[in-house]
């Protein structure tokens, strides 16, 4: 399922054995509901995908 989110919070990258490096992110959708996005390999995203 895909939905648009306004990203409001991003944690500092944390090392992980399973995912290399993780960033936990949270945002709200158009209905004002909070969503948590985890894990995100932030440094592996392209420049256009980074936030």
Q: What is the number of independent domains?
A: 1
Report the helical percentage.
Answer: under 10%
- How many runs of DSSP E, i.e. beta strands? 4
Mean pLDDT: 86
Strand residues, percent: over 45%
The succession of helices and strands, N to C, reads EEEE
Query: What would you call the structural class?
Result: mainly beta
Query: How many DSSP helices?
Result: 0
Radius of gyration: 12 Å
Distance between the termini: 20 Å
- Main sheet? 4 strands, antiparallel
The parts where pLDDT drops under 50 for at least 5 residues are none
Descriptive notes:
- It is a single chain.
- The chain is mainly beta.
- It has one domain.
- 0% of the residues lie in helices and 47% in strands.
- The protein has no helices and four strands.
- It has strands spanning 6-10, 14-16, 20-28, 34-40.
- Strands 1, 2, 3 and 4 form a four-stranded antiparallel beta sheet that branches.
- A hairpin with a 3-residue loop joins strand 2 and strand 3.
- The protein is globular.
- The mean pLDDT is 86.
List keywords for this structure.
four-stranded antiparallel beta sheet, 51 residues, mainly beta, globular
Question: What order do the helices and strands come in, and which of them pair?
Answer:
Layout: E1 6-10, E2 14-16, E3 20-28, E4 34-40
Antiparallel strand pairs: 1-3, 2-3, 3-4
In brief, what are we looking at here?
The chain is mostly beta strands and 51 residues long. Helices cover 0% and strands 47% of the residues.
